[in-house]
Amino acid sequence: MIELRHLTKSYGKGTHITTALNELDLSVEKGEIFGVIGHSGAGKSTLIRCINLLERPTSGEVWVDGVNLTALNTKALQTERRKIGMIFQHFNLLSSATVYDNIAFPLRLIHTSKSSIEKKVNELLALVGLQDHSDKYPAQLSGGQKQRVGIARALASEPEVLLCDEATSALDPQTTDSILKLLLDINKRFNLTIVLITHEMHVIQSICDRVAVIHQGGIVEQGAVTDVFLKP
Ligand code: ADP
Ligand code: ADP
């Protein structure tokens, strides 16, 4: 479902170049939950932002669902990006919009009819357990509820892939577990491919099928979570 080929990303120029990713190769299968773990500065955030081209790689290719995203023009990329949802550490909700309008936002962008939006948003509210909160504003919600809105918004376009950028790092342990459980439910229900980055081993061990360890912009180890972390 996702293939990164010889991906390199450098920031800066001249004598001030930082190479965040160095000829990195990675492949993620359809329907799996794939975790990337590493210390701060290892390149996790750059890696996940390259998958939907929020960050343009310096060289290399990004393939999602059989399409080489790095070869597309802006318009074609916009269409392909609907297959890729994303959630963030700090939720990135619109603070002046209600829960309902936050979730409806991506559907309005693609001119979905009002009745289809209403049906879809109500389905998504039920999916994430926020039926009774649709008229609230983000400031009236807990961290876990905000991330549920983020998840519902990311799923509005029925993506094939969900990218999670430190999605539970701002949450307490109990809330983290409830969000991880929701991600696992969604993964099973829609056969949704999930890629998550984290610095927390617990997140990897509780829901990931496979894991890659990233260090200085390269993958130093990868495999089934049980093989990589639970060896005697
Ligand atoms: P992580 O998410 O694992 O903490 P990042 O991908 O954020 O790692 O960073 C990888 C490296 O790239 C670090 O050395 C970081 O300082 C550098 N870096 C990240 N973003 C930028 C940027 N916008 N400009 C310059 N350097 C950056
Ligand atoms: P069907 O093939 O009958 O549509 P699905 O299990 O694919 O069955 O979908 C059931 C419901 O879930 C539908 O309302 C569909 O719009 C929604 N759905 C399917 N895939 C996703 C997804 N990746 N994200 C969010 N909603 C989805």
UniProtKB/TrEMBL annotation:
<keyword id="KW-0813">Transport</keyword>
<dbReference type="GO" id="GO:0005524">
    <property type="term" value="F:ATP binding"/>
</dbReference>
<protein>
    <submittedName>
        <fullName>Methionine ABC transporter ATP-binding protein</fullName>
    </submittedName>
</protein>
<dbReference type="GO" id="GO:0005886">
    <property type="term" value="C:plasma membrane"/>
</dbReference>
<keyword id="KW-0472">Membrane</keyword>
<keyword id="KW-0067">ATP-binding</keyword>
<dbReference type="GO" id="GO:0006865">
    <property type="term" value="P:amino acid transport"/>
</dbReference>
<keyword id="KW-0029">Amino-acid transport</keyword>
<keyword id="KW-0547">Nucleotide-binding</keyword>
<feature type="domain" description="ABC transporter">
    <location>
        <begin position="2"/>
        <end position="232"/>
    </location>
</feature>
<comment type="similarity">
    <text>Belongs to the ABC transporter superfamily.</text>
</comment>
<dbReference type="GO" id="GO:0016887">
    <property type="term" value="F:ATP hydrolysis activity"/>
</dbReference>
<keyword id="KW-1003">Cell membrane</keyword>
<keyword id="KW-1278">Translocase</keyword>
